[in-house]
Amino acid sequence: MKPIHAPVVCLVALLLTACSASGQSASKPTGEPGTSQPAAQTPNPSTAQAPSKQAASAQSNSGLERVLAEMDKTAAGFRTAQADFVWDQYQKVVNDHDQQKGKVHFRRQGHEIQMAADITEPAKKYVIFSGGKVQVYQPGIDQVTEYNVAKNRAELESFLVLGFGGSGRDLLKQYDVKYLGTEQVDGINADKLQLIPKSVKVRNNVERILLWIDPARGVSVQQQFFEPSGDYRLSKYSNIQLNEKIPDNVFKLKTDAKTKVISPQS
Fold this sequence. Notes:
The protein is α+β, with helices and mostly antiparallel strands. It is 23% helix and 39% strand. It has 6 helices and 12 strands.
């Protein structure tokens, strides 16, 4: 896959990604206070630690299977999704955050996944992904920038459906998936997954992904996409609605004959 232009990554690859997951601290030997025999306090690795690791592994596998099954269930009946969003793009080289807010829509149209984003802050902007191209419309200057992404369409759609209609089993085909337990996201006790792309070409753009899945609905309430450069995008979704009717005009730009259209990739 060719390197994806920044606006495509920001809008189509659904907002690239953030904070590193906190690591677990190394376990310390335990024993009764006041003892002068530390060696006796250290558990035997072949006995005490092994069952603990096995139990943790079994719990992790059980959690992952449960989350994937819920995502499969949601994917089977998926038609549309819409949500309010807050996207926070971090650029390491300048140590700066760029935050955008708005509403995003997804729908399955035949064999195609379409996306429309209505960005309301800090500046009005519309983004449409449909028919093998991405269109970015800036009303302030009355200009549409079009990106032909037909060659990368499958890869981009695979990002789009992460947590929004994508099958849990399909995740296992494209990523090494690890269950990281549960974490509170805006009052939801979400299941946290770590995804490492199996494709080296994909990892050149997206090194690692974190998903927080609402266990009740099988959809993503938060995402983090990490780039090799250290840049990331943290995406938060709220007021999520599934399988509600979305008007066709949501996926069409409201332009006129005076609107300027440019195609940087042509």
